[in-house]
Amino acid sequence: MRLLILIVGVHPLMPLNAEDLIPIADLVNKGRRYDQQKVSIEGEAVGDIMVRGNGSWVNVLGPDGAVIGVFCPGDLAGQVRRLGDYFHRGDMIRVSGTMYRFSPLFGGETCIVADGISVLNAGTTIAHPLAPLRIMVSIATAIGSITSVLLYRRVIRREER
Which class does domain 15-125 fall in? Predict the structure, then answer.
């Protein structure tokens, strides 16, 4: 029996253990395998929390660069405080719920309907320091542009006389 399991591997329709973390890219790219199965993912909450009807949507960015929408019934998304954008790293969250390849509730969206969310790490601010060389190049470009405009106006005035 063990040899048969080793040879065949995990059957694609075998139920999943919801405690096993699944890469978001696998959910997106191999959706048939996970359709209507209990799944758990971890990633960064990004974008905006979008309140819709009796719940909210949160986008989760995985370490693999893939993103999936998560519908959070009720106030489940209220735990998420900081969302990722250019200036912030969003809360790292763990989501458990049912994955739908084509959700009948949400117009065929690929999503997870969450039954649990936990914040693993709070989000932080990202510093984007200015490079001194870029500042100098910007100033030089501005001075060059202003000088060019002034010289052009001077040439036009001479021609008009």
Answer: mainly beta
